[in-house]
Write the structure tokens for this entry.
Amino acid sequence: MPQYLQRGSIPPKRHTTHPRDPGYKSEGIHYEEVITTQGFSRAYSIVYHLRPPTRVIRVEAAGTKPIALAERSTLQHIHLKTASMPASGDPISGRVPLFCNADMILSRCRPKEPQQVLYRNARAEELLFVQHGKGRLRSMFGDLPFRPMDYIVIPKCTTYLIEFDPDPTPPDLLVVESNGDLGFPPRYLNPDGQFRLGAPFCERDLHGPAATAPLDLEGEFELLIKDGETWTKYLLAHHPFDVAGWDGMVYPYTFNADDFEPITGTIHQPPPIHQTFQGSGFVVCTFAPRMLDTHPLAIKVPYAHSNVESDELLFYVRGQFGSRRGVEIGSMTLHPHGIPHGPHPGTIQASRSVQATNELAVMVDTFRPLSMCAGAVLLEDPKYPYSWLD
Ligand SMILES: [Fe+2]
């Protein structure tokens, strides 16, 4: 979880009156909402609304959207060229699932239209990686600015709206929905809960929402709630961003991949040094620009390896990728459990004289096998499994 934050006005003691004159129905107070995790046992935030957050006019079914899986009969390496994926929908409806398992869904999203309706994921923590686009994520916690190369972490049950600033480059997102926890690797934190000296990032690199004036609006406000495959449309009786203040450790925040301080050695260091987030059943790593190994005999691209209990999914974000041929910006490769993968022919020799890499990639390693989704089929490079032949 990110560090404790406080925004706007809160009373000196929790669960006591926070006066407001005259207040909703002249009750003279703000209305507390406590957002808790793991029952009441883990991180929480306390939010002060202008009105009770429970005022609903109507609840309607909005359908089910099961994920269609691709028909696969082989275990093999996969390369998707996702940069060619057509733009569609909005930042929520435009999400195209590409891989999934019981722990997570990984989608790409190239929205064509602005998000008009408030959205809330009732079941999953969301991690958005911004390949292109700048703007703000609006929620009851305030406006959270984002920019390219930001990870945006959105706790489950956060009602939000994403706004992109006008830009000649259309917005482009990688979206991970995590059914379990999503936090930082425990080894990065000291027993006091602070990032250790030597961790590749720290509290200063995490950015929470700005204090934002509450929206005092009665009316009819539509909210789409995703609960697994089931979607529900709510009509709220007032705007839910009516928050005068809050404090706690549950809120959306950003971390920019360019703030990741790479750890390097004289010889090749294994992928866990790139770890950024810890999910339940998966990890997220940032392969940031870095100096390469300095030993005079070092082989500076990764060794071939069989990661026997893990599926490795790599999204190529920026720069040149020293160990790969045929991948491009926006490519996504899946190197599954059960078979070895490694550098492409010629890349070992080519890397010997190179001192640094400017590559930026996001890796998601899952501990349960991933299934390819139907939306990935048209993006697949069928030659990839054979790309290690000379
Ligand atoms: Fe690998």
Notes: The CA atoms of residues 20 and 119 lie 28 Å apart. The chain has a mean pLDDT of 96. The helical segments are 347-351.
